[in-house]
Write a structure and sequence with these properties.
Layout: E1 2-10, H1 17-29, E2 35-41, H2 48-58, E3 62-67, H3 73-83, E4 86-91, H4 103-110, E5 116-122, H5 128-145, E6 153-160, H6 161-168, H7 177-184, E7 188-194, H8 207-221, H9 224-253, H10 261-293, E8 301-305, H11 310-321
Parallel strand pairs: 1-2, 1-4, 2-3, 5-7
Antiparallel strand pairs: 3-8, 4-6, 5-6
Helix pairs in contact: 9-10
């Protein structure tokens, strides 16, 4: 078992993976020589895995997990945590915007008695418009899920062995690393660190992927949308009842003649739209239940490179020399 293992998911990062492993090795060696690096290849179609194989052959502390296809970043994080055998597990993105040089600071903070320490990203290189959109996105997400989600905190973190073990027991297929760590409830804090720039290549997350991921988070962590739709439906019903009662009373006690096919048609279409929305929302949750009860694995591993911590490497050398 290693003292500390770094887990990083990658997708088509052939231009980043060598720099990533080199900088991770430098940062982890400041903490202990007994470290391991686990790179999870989320179905890359470039030379990412081939380059990782070369680095693993040169350094036994470097390992990897390769998916049979793309299963998503958070499935890759889960696979890395499941494969990690260490006292401490560092989780970070593989594009080097999460700077490996911050890991010693994470390690120092977690050893103050915390179970989880996340990095709050400072001086981010993204545009002001992007950051504004992200703040709106996470504010909406917090309102819908009642979770403690903040766009300033990504996946970059360190967790203790007991947190990693508890994380491995979670059975749902839809994964959101930060949300699941928050749900586990272990002691948690954060440190501030400058957010780096991507070393090479282009981001794999676009707007549609983020929107799909947001929907997955809401469906996995909250039934609040159902509560809101129910409240809205009841509100519409009460307004319609009050409006109908007012028209009836006016027709009974005055010379008012009930007219207005246009208003009637608008009301019908409005109520129909509300009903369709309600059914659609329920359908999303039924679809999520369907995906979960199928019991398919969260990911399929095609290849594995198992890292060997330095202590185990030395033990093997001594044994063979005897």
């Amino acid at each position: 078992m290693a003292h500390i293992t770094a887990v990083a998911p990658v997708l088509n990062e052939e231009g980043n993976v060598k720099e990533l492993v080199t900088r991770l090795a430098g940062a982890l060696s400041e903490i202990s020589p007994d470290y391991a690096i686990l790179i999870v290849d989320d179905g890359s179609t470039d030379a990412t895995w081939a380059r990782l194989e070369d680095m693993a052959a040169a350094d036994p502390r470097v390992g990897g997990v390769r998916f049979s296809r793309n299963f998503g970043q958070h499935a890759a994080i889960t696979a890395g945590i499941e494969a990690a055998d260490a006292d401490w597990v560092v989780v970070m993105d593989g594009d080097l915007q999460d700077r490996p040089e911050v890991i010693p600071d994470l390690y120092a903070k977690v050893n103050e008695g915390w179970d989880c320490v996340f990095v709050e990203r400072q001086d981010r290189p993204e545009s002001s418009l992007y950051l504004l959109g992200q703040r709106i996105f996470y504010s909406t997400l917090r309102g819908l899920t009642k979770g403690n989600y903040d766009g300033a905190h990504g996946n970059f973190s360190i967790i203790s062995r007991r947190v990693a073990d508890a994380y491995k027991t979670l059975g749902e297929g839809a994964r959101f690393y930060g949300g699941l760590i928050d749900w586990l409830g272990f002691s948690r804090t954060s440190i501030q660190a400058k957010h780096g720039e991507r070393f090479s290549g282009a981001p794999s997350y676009d707007f549609l992927k983020r929107l799909k991921f947001a929907k997955s988070i809401v469906l996995s962590f909250s039934t609040r949308p159902l509560d809101l739709m129910l409240a809205f439906g009841l509100g519409v019903t009460l307004v319609a009842f009050a409006f109908g009662l007012a028209i009836l009373l006016r027709a009974l006690f005055s010379d008012y003649a009930v007219q207005g096919w246009a208003s009637l048609m608008v009301s019908i279409f409005f109520i129909g739209g509300v009903q369709i929305s309600l059914v659609g929302m329920v359908g999303l949750y039924v679809g999520r239940i369907y995906e979960e009860v199928k019991g398919r694995p969260r990911h399929v591993i095609a290849e594995t490179l198992t890292p060997t911590p330095v202590a185990k490497t030395k033990a093997k050398v001594v044994k063979s020399a005897g």
